[in-house]
Design brief:
- Belongs to the TRAFAC class OBG-HflX-like GTPase superfamily. HflX GTPase family.
- One of its GO terms (cellular component) is cytoplasm.
- Mg(2+) binds at residues 215, 235.
- Residues 202-387 form the Hflx-type G domain.
- Its cofactor is Mg(2+).
- This protein is an alpha/beta fold.
- The protein has two domains: 8-164, GTPase HflX, N-terminal domain (Rossmann fold, 3-Layer(aba) Sandwich), CATH 3.40.50; 198-390, P-loop containing nucleotide triphosphate hydrolases (Rossmann fold), CATH 3.40.50.
- 40% of the residues lie in helices and 16% in strands.
- It contains twelve helices and ten strands.
- The chain has helices at 26-43, 66-79, 92-102, 109-120, 124-138, 170-197, 214-222, 264-269, 275-278, 294-307, 346-356, 372-390, and strands spanning 12-20, 45-54, 83-86, 105-108, 203-208, 239-245, 248-254, 282-288, 315-320, 361-363.
- The strands form two sheets. It has a six-stranded mixed beta sheet, sandwiched between helices.
- Helix 4 (109-120) runs antiparallel to helix 5 and helix 5 (124-138) runs antiparallel to helix 6 (170-197).
- The chain is globular.
- The structure holds guanosine-5'-triphosphate and magnesium ion.
- The site of magnesium ion has 6 residues, from helix 7.
């Protein structure tokens, strides 16, 4: 396994940069930067300071206004900061200009996510997918170069193809890209065959935002030992296990987690990982209900699932980490007004989602094994329906 900068002495320092506007107010922006900080932490860097600016449209040349950029520049210089991480994707020319101004590494969200994937990819398949995504990210940014930086410095954002980009030209990268694509097509075929060989058992896929507890749940259901940890993107490769609930067998797969603004290059190259989702009969959409942004997480997962045509599948919503769920207490309750969501109790959420999902919503704690029986019953109900249609002569029920 690849270790991501374990010792604190090896960790890099970073400042985060985000904007506040009509679509993301101060609170939203802070939540997004929390997530960015978690990503930065996963990649191995400590955040020294956050910079935000109220800005409806980012500056085309420098993203933020020049006054703000000066402020960041002097902070970076004074505190010897290794890199500035921007919450939004920067255009190639913005990247180039900002690097010249700040004189430190400049990463955007996409770059950071690609870097984490690169460090965490364990199988040759995952590595090939990440490498392809990195080259595709790099290609339009080739003119930028890291000329004013120490070229072989390495570290976050410099792993993978970034290191050799100076010696490489566009043509070579394009050749690389087509080679990698060929390689992936080959592996895809093998994997499709493997999936085909799994027979006709009902397939259930765990999907959900990153870090919600999919692998933990997989381990509980399949009594397996899949890596689960408090890092973003702990899982990059799909794991499949056979699970039996009351004589009813089915296949359960654990997949890569989703994230807001998943880089398009990654969606593209992880398509085959998502084949697992595409070919599933049932989806278990896991949600971390203790996260303040969980409703938005649900939406961004549904968006990605929509892109791979998964919306029509029977879905069970699993709200995990109920042990950590907290809500605010309203000071006065006006019976005429609908209560804001931040005041909702778990029971309120349960009522809403049970009716929305026609009963297919379960509230659990995978960690504490709370309500696992209820989850098993719900899965049984959904899976047995498909199973008995597929194997009409087999009365597995008895
Ligand atoms: N308190 C609490 N923590 C949980 C629960 N379920 C999982 N966790 C923790 O949440 C963290 C993430 O769990 P994982 O199972 O790795 O999450 P994942 O969805 O597989 O994450 P990725 O593979 O990164 O997408 C771990 O630290 C788990 O121990 C729960 O019910 N309660
Ligand atoms: Mg996982």
């Amino acid at each position: 396994m690849i270790e991501i900068k374990p010792r604190s002495s090896e960790r890099e320092t970073a400042v985060l940069v985000g904007i506040i506007n009509r679509w993301q107010d101060e609170e939203k922006s802070a939540e997004y930067l929390d997530e960015l900080e978690f990503l930065a932490d996963t990649a191995g860097s400590d955040v020294a300071k956050r910079f935000t600016q109220k800005l409806d449209v980012p500056h085309p040349k420098t993203f933020l206004g020049s006054g703000k950029m000066d402020e960041i520049q002097s902070y970076v210089k004074e505190h010897d900061i290794d890199m500035a991480i921007f919450d939004d994707e920067l255009t190639p020319s913005q990247l180039k200009n900002i690097e010249q101004m700040l004189k430190c590494k400049v990463l955007d969200r996409t770059n950071l996510i690609l870097d984490i994937f690169a460090a965490r990819a364990q199988t040759s398949y995952a590595r090939t997918q990440v490498e392809l995504a990195q080259y595709e990210y790099l290609l339009p940014r080739l003119t930028r170069m890291w000329t004013h930086l120490e070229r072989q410095k390495g570290g976050i954002g410099m792993r993978g193809p970034g290191e050799t980009q100076i010696e490489t030209d566009r043509r070579i990268i394009q050749q690389k890209i087509s080679l990698l694509k060929e390689k992936l097509t080959k592996i895809d075929k093998q994997m499709a065959t493997q999936r085909g060989n799994r027979g006709s058992l009902v397939r259930v896929a765990l999907v959900g935002y990153t870090n919600v507890g999919k692998s933990t749940l997989m381990n509980r259901m399949a009594k397996s030992e899949v890596l689960a940890e408090n890092k973003l993107f702990a899982t990059l490769d799909t794991t499949v296990r056979k699970v039996v609930i009351d004589n009813l067998p089915f296949l359960l797969s654990d997949t890569v987690g989703f994230i807001r603004k998943l880089p398009t290059q990654l969606v593209e190259s992880f398509k085959s990982t998502l084949d697992e989702v595409r070919e599933a009969d049932v989806l278990i959409h896991v949600v971390d209900i203790s996260h303040s942004n969980f409703m938005e997480h649900i939406e961004s997962v549904n968006e990605t699932i929509g892109e791979i045509d998964g919306q029509e599948k029977p879905t069970i919503m699993v709200f995990n980490k109920i042990d950590l769920y907290k809500h605010e207490e309203p000071e006065v309750i006006d019976p005429e007004e609908e209560l804001e969501e931040r005041y909702w109790t778990l029971e309120d959420w349960e009522r809403t989602w049970m009716s929305r999902m026609n009963g297919n919503a379960v509230f659990i704690s995978a960690e504490n094994k709370t309500n696992m029986d209820e989850l098993r019953k719900t899965i049984y109900k959904v899976v047995s329906e498909i199973h008995s249609k597929r194997f009409p002569f087999e009365n597995f029920l008895y």
